[in-house]
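I hope you will forgive my troubling you with a question about protein structure. The full record is reproduced below for your convenience:

——
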Amino acid sequence: MTSESFVLKLSCPNRPGIVAAVSTLLFEAGCNILDAQQFDDVETGRFFMRVIFNAVDADPTPAELRERFRPVGERFGMDWTIRARGERRRVMLLVSKFDHCLVDLLYRQRNGELNMEVAAVVANHPRETYAHIDLDGAPFHHLPVTRQTKMEQEAQLWELVKGTGTEVVVLARYMQVLSDGLAAKLTGRCINIHHSFLPGFKGAKPYHQAHERGVKLIGATAHYVTSDLDEGPIIDQDVERISHRDTPEDLVRKGRDIERRVLARALADHLDDRVILNGRKTVVFTG
């Protein structure tokens, strides 16, 4: 039995025979199922499945497995992918002045927690702003942007995405709103993080606004980017209790910590093919 494992991720209209067809195909391809999760959304009538498997005798490539699976995918009208789990995805990190999420993701990548290769770090501030950060050889690109140059800057950004072979874009507290056009190009592969006060406390200093209102919970939400600002399909969320003793600075500090861990979990789930889009929602297979 080979040591390399693969992950199959799929969604399709629900009907009898899907699981049987998938398991039969993998058996006939000489593969062994290591883990399988599935979900039937009775509201939408769609079926979702994630399967981890490896080969018993042969040593197939992902391309060969995809070719064998293609007839099953077509028969059931599936949206599906097959990928080697050991494959390192190329991720672009976008950042503005707040660098806590960038530093955290770089650290988790270095210690092996995130199975990714940093294709580029892109910022709308110059490199000197991040002089204290060890980018560990990741290419840095300064793409300044103003309201007047936004479309030109996004054209440069898109060329960079294509030129670096970027598969996933992460807005690691990148304080710029992507245009509808760029958001559409990055559908399902661009992840953002924001505080979970929205739409309650919009604009500048949301934690200060929340403190003035005496909130008892703060949190963060990681989601896919869409043309609807901060309303894309949610991948992960977390919260922390707040008391009357907490200052605005305490809220900011605790909020940064929540943002870091929520964004890291969301990216890890995406990289491990645990997330499947389901309209305006997601199915996230955990465990």
